[in-house]
Amino acid sequence: MSIAAIESVLQQMRTTAVRAGFQPAAATTDAAPAGGFAGELRRSLDEISGAQTRAYGQAEAFEMGKPGVALNDVMVDLQKANVAFQTGLQVRNRLVAAYQEVMSLPA
User: Which domain holds residue 29?
Assistant: First the structure.
């Protein structure tokens, strides 16, 4: 199976999930405490996921030709989702670096 075929199937699955209102992040929010660092991290990850889901949904609506969806709005939302993802990635990188630095401290 080619990569393009796999990506096509994944896109169809995402589309179906969005249309059905499936929210995978909502099922796992009970595992994190409501406050503190873990709760804030979970909330941030949920916001990033939500921004990506909304942006991809709006892009698909534009591709389908639905009225009221402008290309400039789609592009702005996709860029916002990208910036949110890149910010989350940098936070993760800094957390990993801090963890490695703490673990390398002499006992």
Answer: 3-103
Residue 16: exposure state from Cβ atoms within 10 A (0-12, 13-18, ≥19): exposed
Per-residue pLDDT tens, the chain, 107 aa: give them: 567 777 776 677 777 777 766 665 544 445 544 678 888 889 999 999 999 999 999 999 999 999 999 999 999 999 999 999 999 999 999 999 999 999 998 87
Question: Whose CA is closest to 57, among 98, 105, 16, 106?
Answer: 16
**Domain count across the chain:** 1
Q: What is the pTM of this model?
A: 0.62
